[in-house]
């Protein structure tokens, strides 16, 4: 089984820079998530167009929260947060649109599974600056989720090339990375280290 590598925008970079990096690393990346909470629907629409202009296929683009923009742009899917529309509602309103969601416990993962999402993102696994002060979930809790939920789990939070194999060994279908690649001095080199670590079959 080929493990997945998801790249999530940081919300701090100019979208032009994100698109530039995405074009450089896309051969080693399965999905790019636009996680831009400050953007309006029209901003996100333009961001997807910017990625397309950089030859990023729509099949690799996932938009956080805004199912309407994902549907309009024919993106791969939408990623839902706790404040988003219910996954079942999105399924009904936007048939054919991929749906994923964030979960933070085995209970939430089971609910997501019942609602028929395509995958769940779980974390944070390790300590990370973006979640400073919050205790990480750790590998044991990750394994408990992957063993008890028949749903692909994408792990996020503090994952590096040196620890991502342990994350996959705990049952994760793939990993999600933000600053580890997007803020690296050489994003292309960084993504190749991740790609090699999860033994992607290209």
Word description of this protein:
By secondary structure, this protein is α/β, with parallel strands linked by helices. It has one domain: Aldolase class I (TIM Barrel, Alpha-Beta Barrel), CATH 3.20.20.70. 39% of the residues lie in helices and 18% in strands. The chain has nine helices and eight strands. An eight-stranded parallel beta barrel has the order 1-2-3-4-5-6-7-8, surrounded by five helices. α2 (41-53) links the parallel β2 and β3 (61-64). α2 (41-53) runs parallel beside α3 (67-73). It is globular and about 40 Å long. The model has no long low-confidence stretch (mean pLDDT 94).
Brief digest:
The chain is α/β, with parallel strands linked by helices and 202 residues long. It has helices spanning 15-25, 41-53, 67-73, 87-93, 106-114, 138-148, 164-169, 179-182, 187-197; strands at 4-8, 31-34, 61-64, 77-80, 98-103, 119-123, 153-156, 174-177. It has a single domain (4-197), classed as Aldolase class I (TIM Barrel, Alpha-Beta Barrel), CATH 3.20.20.70.
Write the layout of secondary structure elements.
Blueprint: E1 4-8, H1 15-25, E2 31-34, H2 41-53, E3 61-64, H3 67-73, E4 77-80, H4 87-93, E5 98-103, H5 106-114, E6 119-123, H6 138-148, E7 153-156, H7 164-169, E8 174-177, H8 179-182, H9 187-197
Parallel strand pairs: 1-2, 1-8, 2-3, 3-4, 4-5, 5-6, 6-7, 7-8
Helix pairs in contact: 2-3
């Amino acid at each position: 089984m080929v493990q997945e590598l998801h790249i999530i925008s940081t919300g701090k970079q100019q979208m032009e820079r994100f698109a530039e990096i995405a074009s450089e690393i896309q051969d080693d990346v399965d999905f790019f998530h636009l996680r831009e909470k400050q953007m309006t629907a029209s901003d996100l629409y333009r961001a997807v167009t910017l990625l397309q202009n950089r030859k990023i296929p729509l099949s690799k683009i996932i938009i956080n929260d805004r199912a309407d923009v994902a549907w309009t742009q024919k993106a791969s899917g939408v990623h839902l947060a706790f404040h988003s529309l219910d996954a079942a509602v999105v399924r009904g309103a936007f048939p054919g649109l991929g749906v994923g969601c964030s979960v933070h416990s085995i209970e939430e993962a089971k609910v997501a599974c019942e609602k028929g999402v395509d995958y769940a993102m779980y974390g944070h696994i390790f300590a990370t600056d973006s979640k400073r002060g919050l205790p990480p979930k750790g590998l044991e809790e990750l394994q408990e989720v992957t063993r008890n939920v028949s749903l692909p789990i994408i792990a996020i939070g503090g994952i590096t090339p040196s620890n991502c194999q342990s994350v996959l060994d705990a049952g994760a279908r793939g990993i999600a990375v933000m600053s580890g690649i997007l803020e690296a001095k050489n994003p292309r080199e960084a993504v190749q280290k991740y790609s090699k670590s999860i033994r992607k079959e290209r």
